[in-house]
């Protein structure tokens, strides 16, 4: 698994805002610092809560009705999420407060990564996976099978 993450970091080398691979991970194979047991990644941490102002789905900054997050924004075509098979399943956008949002192709917010963590969460606060950042910029998203389905609905 560590080799897969390292390989994905190499794939993601490029501009900070670029297409990003998304893959299903096995949470039991993650190193401690990438999983929900690490204090910064814990669903119980207030800063990771879906009710925290920067993460809230009620915030316009996290809504696809905001042009920056909209599927109609051409900039989001440069930030697509793609599977190993090459299927595009969504896109990502930052909200200006450090929260990174992952949206379905239709613009529904599926997951978010709060500022200061390497983890992804669902709108109900469930731990959903991890974000790997490449040295030269870009991302790779590893998500649990359950949360991967949120991007496909």
Number of domains: 1
**CA-atom Rg in angstroms:** 14 Å
The first-to-last residue Cα distance is: 27 Å
Helix content: 10-25%
Structural class: alpha+beta
Number of strands: 8
Low-confidence stretches: 1-16
Order of helices and strands: HEEEEEEEEH
Number of helices: 2
Please tell me what the overall shape is: globular
Q: Walk across the major sheet and give the strand order.
A: 1-2-3-4-5-6-7-8
Biggest β-sheet description: 8 strands, mixed, barrel
β-sheet strand percentage:
25-35%
Can you give a write-up of this model?
- The protein is built from 2 helices and 8 strands.
- It has an 8-stranded mixed β-barrel.
- 12% of the residues lie in helices and 27% in strands.
- It has one domain.
- With 153 residues, the protein is α+β, with helices and mostly antiparallel strands.
- The radius of gyration is 14 Å and the shape is globular.
- It comes from Paracoccus aminophilus JCM 7686.
Tell me the layout of helices and strands.
Blueprint: H1 2-11, E1 20-24, E2 80-82, E3 88-94, E4 100-104, E5 109-113, E6 119-122, E7 127-133, E8 139-143, H2 145-152
Parallel strand pairs: 1-2, 1-8
Antiparallel strand pairs: 2-3, 3-4, 4-5, 5-6, 6-7, 7-8
